[in-house]
Amino acid sequence: MHQAIPFRTCLKTGTRDSRDLPVPESNNGVDASNVLKMVSENAVIIIGRKGCCMCHVVKRLLQGLGVNPPVYEVDDHHEPVVAAQLSPLQSQTLQFPAVFVGGKLFGGLERVMATHISGELVPILKDAGALWL
After folding, report:
1. Which keywords does this Swiss-Prot/TrEMBL entry list (predicted)?
2. Domain span at residue 104?
């Protein structure tokens, strides 16, 4: 079975491409309102380090379930800025990859895999509006 992969699935930090969200840059290239806006506007979004293999695993798992989450790639030197700007949305320390479901921090790879194995992930994704099945 073939699955459609959209043209733009990664959102990179510090770029000013016409396909990226047009927002002014601050905080060394990372705009906090941009990150918070993306988290609130997407039913599911993955925020992770640039080139992280665990981000790829989470993304492929969610794609296998029918969700096509955008991935916001963070450079190493932007990581503390992004973690600090997302601190109002979380109660624990932010670890990458961070998966946000319904505008709230869901967890990382371990939490996503555990919920998938227990069968609780699909109902959570349906409640967040990421799945319509």
Report:
1. Cytoplasm, Redox-active center
2. 10-128
Residue/partner pairs of 37-40 with CB below 8 Å, 24 or more apart: 38/11, 38/70, 38/72, 39/86, 39/89, 39/100, 39/103, 40/103
For the stretch 64-122, pLDDT in tens is 999 999 998 888 778 777 777 776 666 566 778 889 998 888 988 999 999 999 999 99
Q: Which long-range contacts (CB under 8 A, 24 or more apart) does 129-133 make?
A: 129/43, 129/102, 130/43, 130/44, 130/67, 130/69, 130/101, 131/65, 131/66, 131/67, 133/66
Overall domain count for the chain: 1
Q: pTM of the entire structure?
A: 0.72
Q: Tell me whether residue 3 is in a domain.
A: no
**Residue 22: which CATH number?**
3.40.30.10
